[in-house]
Write the structure tokens for this entry.
Amino acid sequence: MPSTRPALDVKRLRERRRLRALRQRAAFWLGALLVGFAALAFAWLADHAFERFEWLIERYPYAPWIVTPLGFALLAWLTQGYLKEAKGSGIPQVIACLELPSNRLRQRLLALPIAVAKMLLTVLALLCGASVGREGPTVHIGAALMYNFGRRLGLQGRHALSGLILAGGAAGIAAAFNTPLAGVVFALEELSTRMEQGFNGVILMAVLIGGMVTLGLMGHYSYFGEISAELPLSDAWLAVLACGLFGGVSGGLYCRLVLPAKRGPLAVLGAWRAKRPVVFAAACGLILALLGLISGQHVFGTGYAETRALLEGQPQTDGLFLLWKFLANVVSYLAGIPGGLFSPSLAVGAGIGPWLIDWIPGITLQTAGLLGMAAYLAGVTRTPLTATVITIELAHSQDMALPILAASLLASSISARISPVPLYRAFAQALLDQLAPAPKQHQETTATAAPADKN
């Protein structure tokens, strides 16, 4: 009589595989919903925090001279110990976890207390007037939530956990800006140089779910409204060249200023920051307060109001806003406090608009602002496709797709000549150098896992 045991074993194996696949999908999709709600809560807290800062400086114009340096010093002090992984943008932490699939490294950089601290400390930074955004921190928070949620559901495979981190970070961008396509492109272009073939569908679905949370709760809206802009093929295309040059040079310069230097004045500055981080952060806060005074209090926060006013053709600032906001972004990032650079970078890029309309015939303030936003963001991050898609989705300006892409590609290429290593990749490598265990202590997690290819 033939044995039925082999058939039963095959059936049990198929059942286990089916349950494993179900857990994976639940982790990706339910985790994406969680990321979407967290992004909305973060956005609400951040907006209200900066509104309180604006309320303060309206009544007490010299308040930034006290609040901003003291707030920067407090943030630097809080992020010196256990919470040191909460400082900065958060995107380098996610890239580092994808580059080196070490459980020890991931549990350190993506711990839930770090994610909560990232949110609260970024809110505190905006309450102090820091020129930072919340999009990079949302990437970090999204990756941490998805990673920990997946582990709670029993997922342990290296590919599955990497997919959760990738999807969580991309869903964070999609939910923060309400730009699902930008989240997908960001995952492909910045967070990872490859996507595991078996997870493409579930990762993309998770990104879309994260974006749909904001769509369902906030309705159909564009971050900067619907901007009517176009650029016919004529002499006006000189603006593409001008914005590409501007974005590449200024974006590359920004990277050189904030990345660690081995020699020269920037190296001396870096040594002072490493030795006296709290005092250094307070000094950065004082410089930001000075820039606020010079600019008419327009350099604080994300720059959303100034950017939207410019894109609507009713700028609140003069042409020098570009310079003051650029310096404010540099100072805020050098301070080492939690906060991202997406929104402040868009504000700097939009600031080129008033400069171009007087020199290039046939170009509007809105057109120049959109080109500048994408070009400068591409110059800083070296992600021209992400910069293109995010600018189009933020302003609902599909007619500008081709000139925006051209300006972004040019800016990214020029920036690479000035600062060869991409900003986020450089910070991610610095994290790996600081946090990765020595090779002998590190074999249990890396013996079977090769690092992902680098750009």
In short: The first helix runs from residue 5 to 59. The radius of gyration is 23 Å. Residues 438-455 have pLDDT under 50 and may be disordered. The chain has 21 helices and no strands.
